[in-house]
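Researcher: Next sequence.
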Amino acid sequence: MTGTATSSSPVAVPPAAPHGVNSEVGGLRKVLVCAPGLAHQRLTPTNCDDLLFDDVLWVQNARRDHFDFMAKMRKRGIEVVELHNVLAETLAVPEARTWLLDRKIVANEVGLGLVEDTRAFLEELDDRRLAEFMIGGLSTADLPADFRPGYVALARESTGVREYLMPRCPTPSTPATPRAGSTAG
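Model: Next structure:
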């Protein structure tokens, strides 16, 4: 009775197909991309090395090239999924929005005195704008005056402290060339 299921034995369920790249020559069916955005606008000659870029890039040109590349993939029948859209759709679910903000806006990330005001500002944003900040990072300069406690001035003037309250998220793709031996993200 090997290989057959009977009413008294459990039915074997095949495991779900794993996600991933299983062939270097097979056809691409679906791809997750991240359009150049806020994170790329903030690249400077000073911070690009820390973010694993050789140099700053022309964001408008990168956007044009990115959208052209997406159009070419779609023309070939490839399903293109854009990260900003997926995250905005996720943030539209109140429980998901709360879950993500609970894990991203914590004292270890934004600083003890900035949690409340930073969280209040982000909770007021629409889903798309919040997704942009979650992917591109939130700078102290992004906080409106009514959400700026005195701690913000200290964060901006202190040496060695980045002015990011919420660092940018790693993305699945970037339009710039990473340094040799590293991955951009």
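Model: The longest helix spans residues 59-75. The beta strands are 30-33, 79-82, 138-139, 164-166.
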